[in-house]
């Protein structure tokens, strides 16, 4: 089998409401959908959601990296040879994980369709039957966040990921307001997205949140400050998760060596796709670290890819892939059974792509043959 054509669609996915994190407010999510065609007539879809603050790529930059560098490098290659494809991509361009993830995901979709199996069966087989879905609360006024959380509890949600990181004092008020509204039985995870910057500020917040009964605290300090993460972990019994600080095997080794976290957040866009994500999960398992699969707020395509990794691995104990629930229009039909996600046994990613919707959301495109 050979790759004969790669179609790139730079798209804007509309959100129901703006998504606010410590470093940016998103009125829509910019994404690149990749369609890979083969000489056997099997087509696979992938996705790239770049982020300047996380993957080191811009939306436009990822598009042109795919168009001018990665796609030409893999045209004519066998999409089933994943190890070789990643070696080719890594030798062609340094970094660019979100761009590489799009090619990787599309090739896994092709592999699954070729063999008539869902992707999770190709990377270990189904381990989990379902995962509870965590509702993500973007940054807002404390009372507004509390009201949204209460409404989501009524819909069946039992866990929340709170985005904070704008101001420590207000962040503490946000967390306390949500905890007071939803009670002690609901799980609350706090994601700072590097917003507290350093360990001193973080410890100030932790002291104020000691009675908030948090599941874990995610990436409070700058991504490269692994020493800061390790110091904070030595000073608190609130479990710590590393996110932006974990990209690939080198960072995972540092997390392990420095005992910098209790849990790691694996994202396909940070590490380069399904194949590297599985390697990270194995690396974490050997060190006794629990894993989560998260997302950069992707469509049904990227979200499904993350779910396939999560469903196949015992060491992955939680997921945060809720992009399709936040979009008012999506290109795929990944089905959620809120507050749970259960994957089907359809081959490949198991997602049907609506080409008309994709065309409607596309801002610019290109084809490489």
UniProtKB/TrEMBL annotation:
Report what the protein is called. Answer: Dipeptide epimerase
* PANTHER family linked: O-SUCCINYLBENZOATE SYNTHASE (PTHR48073:SF2), O-SUCCINYLBENZOATE SYNTHASE-RELATED (PTHR48073)
Q: Give the record's family classification.
A: Belongs to the mandelate racemase/muconate lactonizing enzyme family.
Do you know which Gene3D superfamilies this protein is assigned to?
Answer: Enolase-like C-terminal domain, Enolase-like, N-terminal domain
- Keywords, sorted A to Z: Isomerase, Magnesium, Metal-binding
* Enzyme Commission number(s): 5.1.1.-
> In terms of domain of life, where is this protein from?
Bacteria
Question: Which residue range or ranges hold the Mandelate racemase/muconate lactonizing enzyme C-terminal domain?
Answer: 142-239
Isomerase as UniProt keyword? yes
Q: How is the cofactor bound?
A: Binds 1 Mg(2+) ion per subunit.
Q: Which prosthetic group or cofactor does it need?
A: Mg(2+)
């Amino acid at each position: 089998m050979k790759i004969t054509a790669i179609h790139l669609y730079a798209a804007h996915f509309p959100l129901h409401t703006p998504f606010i994190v410590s470093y940016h407010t998103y009125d829509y999510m910019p994404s690149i959908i990749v369609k890979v065609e083969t000489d056997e007539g099997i087509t696979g879809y992938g996705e790239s959601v770049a982020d300047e603050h996380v993957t080191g790529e811009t939306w436009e930059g990822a598009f042109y990296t795919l168009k001018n560098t990665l796609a030409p490098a893999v045209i004519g290659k066998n999409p089933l040879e994943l190890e070789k494809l990643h070696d080719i991509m890594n030798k062609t361009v340094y970094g660019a994980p979100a761009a590489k993830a799009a090619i990787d995901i599309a090739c896994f979709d092709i592999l699954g369709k070729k063999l008539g199996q869902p992707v999770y069966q190709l990377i270990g087989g189904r381990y989990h039957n379902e995962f509870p879905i965590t509702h993500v609360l973007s940054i807002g006024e404390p009372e507004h966040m509390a009201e949204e959380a209460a409404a989501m509890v009524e819909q069946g949600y039992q866990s929340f990921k709170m985005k904070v990181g704008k101001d420590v004092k207000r962040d503490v008020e946000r967390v306390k307001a949500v905890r007071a509204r939803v009670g002690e039985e609901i799980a609350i995870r706090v994601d700072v997205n590097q917003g507290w910057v350093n360990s001193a500020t973080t410890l100030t917040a932790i002291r104020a949140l000691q009675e908030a009964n948090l599941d874990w605290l995610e990436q409070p300090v700058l991504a490269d400050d692994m020493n800061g993460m390790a110091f904070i972990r030595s000073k608190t019994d609130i479990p710590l998760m590393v996110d932006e600080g974990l990209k690939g095997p080198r960072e995972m080794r540092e997390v392990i060596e420095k005992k910098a976290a209790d849990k790691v957040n694996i994202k396909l866009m940070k590490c380069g796709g399904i194949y590297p994500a599985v390697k990270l999960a194995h690396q974490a398992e050997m060190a006794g670290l629990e894993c989560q699969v998260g997302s950069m707020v992707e469509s049904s395509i990227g979200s499904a890819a993350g779910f396939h990794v999560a469903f196949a691995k015992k060491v992955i104990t939680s997921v945060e892939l809720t992009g399709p629930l936040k979009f008012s229009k999506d290109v795929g039909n990944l089905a959620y059974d809120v507050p749970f996600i259960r994957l089907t046994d359809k081959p490949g990613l198991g997602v049907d792509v609506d080409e008309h919707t994709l065309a409607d959301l596309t801002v610019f495109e290109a084809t490489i043959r």
